[in-house]
Amino acid sequence: ETGVTQSPTHLIKTRGQQVTLRCSSQSGHNTVSWYQQALGQGPQFIFQYYREEENGRGNFPPRFSGLQFPNYSSELNVNALELDDSALYLCASSRIGDEQYFGPGTRLTVT
Amino acid sequence: DQQVKQNSPSLSVQEGRISILNCDYTNSMFDYFLWYKKYPAEGPTFLISISSIKDKNEDGRFTVFLNKSAKHLSLHIVPSQPGDSAVYFCAASENGGGATNKLIFGTGTLLAVQP
């Protein structure tokens, strides 16, 4: 059984640019959540998708957007990058009612 | 506003002894609590959970205790092993979301188990 995978592992962007992060859910999982983990902090909930629909959103501005595809993989898009967007971005998948399984994360650096 | 707090950034314990990690919360609507463990360069791994209708849940060497009146939970690891050295996050969800929905995380406690 393949776990949650994320790509890329690391990337560096310039302020004002746009970025797309990708996540492949664990087999059989239909829910995907995205979290942002800043240095020294715990993960913060960005949003969740269930069966391709947004199913909850945290306190993040609209320039953070997402998609879930029919195969339950997902993308996180961030527009107009700011320095404070530098963080580890974690994707987690689950079946409804079960615990979330996290990927290794994408480390985003905005300069 | 930090709804889930882990006030000890780090903890050092001798191998074989008990590790106790603490977590406090402020939101009385939280009804499900989880502990995750995180090694460097890996995502958090689910460890153990507890529903607010219980006050204790045990899984092998890991036991979680919940004190709802004090809005406090703790994770006990007994006996501690060097492989337990990691960052431990406490997390909570509300409104029947269980383990699946929006999780609110604490800032983590770095546990170091000395051989």
Would you kindly provide a written description of the structure presented here, covering whatever features stand out?
The complex is a heterodimer of chains A (111) and B (115). Chain A is globular, with a radius of gyration of 13 Å. The termini of chain A are far apart. Helices cover 0% and strands 51% of the residues of chain A. Chain A is mostly beta strands and 111 residues long. In chain A, strand 5 and strand 6 form a beta hairpin. Chain B is mostly beta strands and 115 residues long. In chain B, a hairpin with a 2-residue loop joins strand 6 and strand 7. Chain B is globular, with a radius of gyration of 13 Å. The model of chain B has no long low-confidence stretch (mean pLDDT 94). The chains are: A mainly beta (111), B mainly beta (115). At the A-B interface, strand 4, strand 5, strand 9 and strand 10 of A face strand 5 and strand 10 of B.
Outline of the structure:
The complex is a heterodimer of chains A (111) and B (115). Chain A has 111 residues and is an all-beta fold. Chain A has strands at residues 5-7, 10-13, 19-24, 31-37, 44-50, 53-57, 64-68, 74-78, 87-94, 101-102, 106-110.
Structure keywords:
heterodimer, A: 111 residues, four-stranded antiparallel β-sheet, 51% strand, B: 115 residues, 11 strands, globular
Architecture blueprint of SSEs:
The complex is a heterodimer of chains A (111) and B (115).
Chain A: E1 5-7, E2 10-13, E3 19-24, E4 31-37, E5 44-50, E6 53-57, E7 64-68, E8 74-78, E9 87-94, E10 101-102, E11 106-110
Parallel strand pairs in A: 2-11
Antiparallel strand pairs in A: 1-3, 3-8, 4-5, 4-9, 5-6, 7-8, 9-10, 9-11
Chain B: E1 4-5, E2 10-14, E3 19-25, E4 30-38, E5 45-51, E6 56-59, E7 62-67, E8 72-77, E9 86-94, E10 104-105, E11 109-114
Parallel strand pairs in B: 2-11
Antiparallel strand pairs in B: 1-3, 3-8, 4-5, 4-9, 6-7, 7-8, 9-10, 9-11
